[in-house]
Amino acid sequence: MVRSIRAVKRDLNDAWLRGLRPPEKGRLEVWDTRVGGLMLRLTPTGAATWSVRARTHDGKRTRPTLGTWPGLGIAEARKRAPAHLAAIHSGADPVAQKRAIRARREDQPTVALRVAEWLVARETDPAKPLKPRTAAEYRRTMERDVLPRIGTRSLRETTREDWTRLVAAKRREAPAMASLLYRCASAFLGHAEAHGWITSSPLPRKGLAAIAPPPAPRERVLSDGELRAVWDASAQLNPRPRAFVRILILTATREMEVADVAAGEVHVSMERWMIPGKRTKNRLPYTVPLCPLALAEVSAIWPDHVGEVAFDWRLLGAIGGGGFRGFSKLKAKLDALSGVTDWRWHDLRRTARTGMTRLGVSREHAEAAINHVSGRSKLERTYDRHDHAEEVLMALARWQAHVADLITTSAVEEPPIHRHRS
């Protein structure tokens, strides 16, 4: 075995190399006698790297690496060395070229840097800022699926294959999340193109259907019996999670609209909940009636120091600063208590929408009751400014009355109903 000396020359083979002992300090350079300039450098940590050493035309010494041993054996190293030596002798300097490429990359902003700039720009856009929930979803998606893989790369050097590979990998893991990743990445790259960070977006503009087709719309609607079981099970919860579940059932609103309900939005004397446009999906303000059942839940969570509560005090938050969170944990507990499974929070909204149709509410008024603008043309929305406020209140009041009847009478199996998608 070779002792810890600084340099040695011999006819190398892999068996002999396996017997090498790392030096206690410094480096051990083992030169091959078959191919001039080929050597293996061994460090005290045991790292072994193949390289060739030669001089460029201007007399400078250069030492490009070929790979690491034992992954790259002596036979393959001997095959690669002549091409590198020939390139150096013809005037190339591989080491200088790598340094130049690295320097160019350092001068070009990375994907991570541009993503951060994009999120700040969208969150502070005076014309149409991202909602906090959307911004958080975008940030979470990019940090989870993009930045760990290509975050350190120069944005300009990324290719279509880089981005489509990310989406394809996500699609194999979670198809619904792949669709979200595509939309998020497409929004980022569109912004990058518009601001001159890249010449054109690597993602195809109409590639969603081919690369990450969204999953089929859900059609789950809870039966009257299931709805009553969920309501009854919520009685075993603490006041805030119970209020979250019951207000969600009664108002047909979205879970984040309920989760972040603020004291200033609730007008108890008027029996109204007025959600500002900044908190709705379509940015339109939305007024919801509060029946006695809903008001009872509001009363149970209303803070004692009511005179000191600010307008934006979150009623369902543990300390008022933030809204209700822990949706998955609450849902799992509710499933166990109620015995009703295979449903999501948004399915309660679809259940209410479908129930309104069953109760005789017109399609137009039922859609307005859940703050939808779908079904109306752009021209119609421009010239017909009637907001159907009274009809909305009546539609929701009819649904709330149905829920009240449901929980105070014995559960019966309802007739088949049309499954309305929302």
Automatic annotation (TrEMBL):
<dbReference type="InterPro" id="IPR011010">
    <property type="entry name" value="DNA_brk_join_enz"/>
</dbReference>
<dbReference type="InterPro" id="IPR038488">
    <property type="entry name" value="Integrase_DNA-bd_sf"/>
</dbReference>
<dbReference type="InterPro" id="IPR050808">
    <property type="entry name" value="Phage_Integrase"/>
</dbReference>
<dbReference type="InterPro" id="IPR025166">
    <property type="entry name" value="Integrase_DNA_bind_dom"/>
</dbReference>
<keyword id="KW-0238">DNA-binding</keyword>
<dbReference type="InterPro" id="IPR044068">
    <property type="entry name" value="CB"/>
</dbReference>
<dbReference type="GO" id="GO:0015074">
    <property type="term" value="P:DNA integration"/>
</dbReference>
<protein>
    <submittedName>
        <fullName>Integrase arm-type DNA-binding domain-containing protein</fullName>
    </submittedName>
</protein>
<feature type="domain" description="Core-binding (CB)">
    <location>
        <begin position="109"/>
        <end position="193"/>
    </location>
</feature>
<dbReference type="Pfam" id="PF13356">
    <property type="entry name" value="Arm-DNA-bind_3"/>
</dbReference>
<dbReference type="GO" id="GO:0003677">
    <property type="term" value="F:DNA binding"/>
</dbReference>
<dbReference type="GO" id="GO:0006310">
    <property type="term" value="P:DNA recombination"/>
</dbReference>
<keyword id="KW-0233">DNA recombination</keyword>
<dbReference type="Pfam" id="PF22022">
    <property type="entry name" value="Phage_int_M"/>
</dbReference>
<dbReference type="InterPro" id="IPR013762">
    <property type="entry name" value="Integrase-like_cat_sf"/>
</dbReference>
<keyword id="KW-0229">DNA integration</keyword>
<dbReference type="InterPro" id="IPR010998">
    <property type="entry name" value="Integrase_recombinase_N"/>
</dbReference>
<comment type="similarity">
    <text>Belongs to the 'phage' integrase family.</text>
</comment>
<dbReference type="InterPro" id="IPR053876">
    <property type="entry name" value="Phage_int_M"/>
</dbReference>
